[in-house]
Amino acid sequence: MLNLTKKRFDIIIIGAGLSGLILANEISEKSKKSILIIEKKKKLGYDKNWCFWNTPQNIFTNKYDTAWDSIKIKIDNNEIIHNESKIKYLHLKSSSFFKYMIKRLAKNKRIKILNGKEINKINKYTEKNEVIIDKYKYECKFLFDSRPSLIKKKGELFQHFVGYEVVFDKNILNNKQVTLMDFQSFSNGINFMYILPFTSKRALFESTYFSQKTYSKLRYKKNVIKYLDRNFPNTKYKIYFKEQGILPMFNQNVKQTFNYFPIGIPGNWLKSSTGYSFQNCFFYSSLITESVINNKKIRIKNKLLLSFLDEVFCNLIKKSSQDLKIFFLYFFKKNNLKLIVSFLNGNINLLQLLRVIIILPKKKIFISAFEVIKKKVLSNETN
Q1: Helix, strand, coil: what percent of the chain each, to 5?
Q2: CB–CB of 162/206 below 8 Å?
Q3: What is the dihedral of CA 257, 261, 266, 270, to 10 degrees?
């Protein structure tokens, strides 16, 4: 039997991504726990963009790459624009995030980061966890795992997208305004263009779907090129950086023990109806840190009413996506930006939630809600 060299840490975090580094920072700021972060990539760089609102505040509220105080939503010939100087939509490149977080964590001698390491085996016990890498056995009390474990469930929705950074040969963009959604289709799901203008010449154009079916990369690229040719005729441009992703629009089964816990997307830190996760990483990391410091079982309770409404919304997309045109129109047109942001972030109280529901077409909502409840009841009876 191979003789392994043992090394002990209070906490091991698998994955030096968004959730892993934010959790490590949160724990290190509030305790003296020793932390090992294991990342399979040798180098972390620019492969994605994260966006979030400046409320609630976090350590990146004033460390963003780009900011906008105007948003636009376009549905057919309807353009809805919200301008609010106090509410900003912030953009952060993954390279900026990694550079800042790695530098910040490197100052703490109790934190060690292993890059370019593949895990051979994980052993979970009642009192400890073991992570085997090469000739080393790393032991810890708490193990947090952000490795993706996305399983495509039949009939479930996904948010899937491919975005291209486009550079035009002249100043043609309104770089003061972000386009959250320019709807292209409501057939068999939803398709919209998401546009982040970094300058008057350079922007990210992202073809995004909410649907059960995913497509070849060529389809997304054709969508972007078609959009550019239609909206910017006789304009020369070059396509550079590309990002892509697929996100679940449903809650995954979280398999946790007293001291092993999935985080990030595997831990359902993503708001399923919108795909926003940046602010949630700070929220859930704070809850976990409190449990770790007090040596208590980690319990993350989802906001049940908001989770239920996410399911109702996703059920509407599956059953009658054509009807959602009026929902989006009412939601963005009849609510102020503060309420819209609270809803999209999931930081909304009951009174605000009722204000949102009241202005929406109620018949379809009630039908969808009934279908979701019926599905849950049948599922419980089966189990």
Answers
A1: 35, 30, 35
A2: yes
A3: 120
The mean pLDDT value of the chain amounts to 91
Domains in the chain, start-ordered, CATH in brackets?
Answer: 5-47+92-150+255-293 (3.50.50.60), 158-248 (3.30.70), 304-382 (no CATH)
**Tokens coding 293:** 């410091």
State whether residue 314 is helix, strand or coil.
Answer: helix
| Residues lower than pLDDT 70 in the chain | 1-2, 150-153, 301-302, 379-383
Nearest to 291 by CA among 33, 21, 58, 102: 33
What is the Cα 39 distance to its own chain's centre? Answer: 19
Query: What is the residue-wise DSSP string for 162-206?
Result: EEEEEEESS----TT-EEEEEEEE-SSSEEEEEEEESSSSEEEEE
The upper half-sphere exposure of residue 357, i.e. CA atoms within 13 Å in the direction of its Cβ, equals 19
CA 78 to CA 82: how far, in whole Å?
13
In DSSP terms, which residues pair with 202 in a beta bridge? Answer: 167
Q: What is the pLDDT of residues 18-63, one digit of tens each?
A: 999 999 999 999 999 999 999 999 999 999 999 999 999 999 999 9
The tens digit of pLDDT for each residue in 249-289 reads 988 877 888 889 999 999 989 988 888 999 999 999 999 99
Distance, CA of 222 to CA of 242 (rounded, Å): 14
85/71 Cα distance (integer angstroms): 11
Provide the β-strand partners of residue 178.
Answer: 71
How many other β-carbons are positioned within 10 Å of the β-carbon of residue 229?
12
Strands 202-211 and 158-168: antiparallel
Residue 314 CB neighbours (<10 A): 20
* CA dist list (Å): 208 to 47, 296, 329: 17, 40, 18
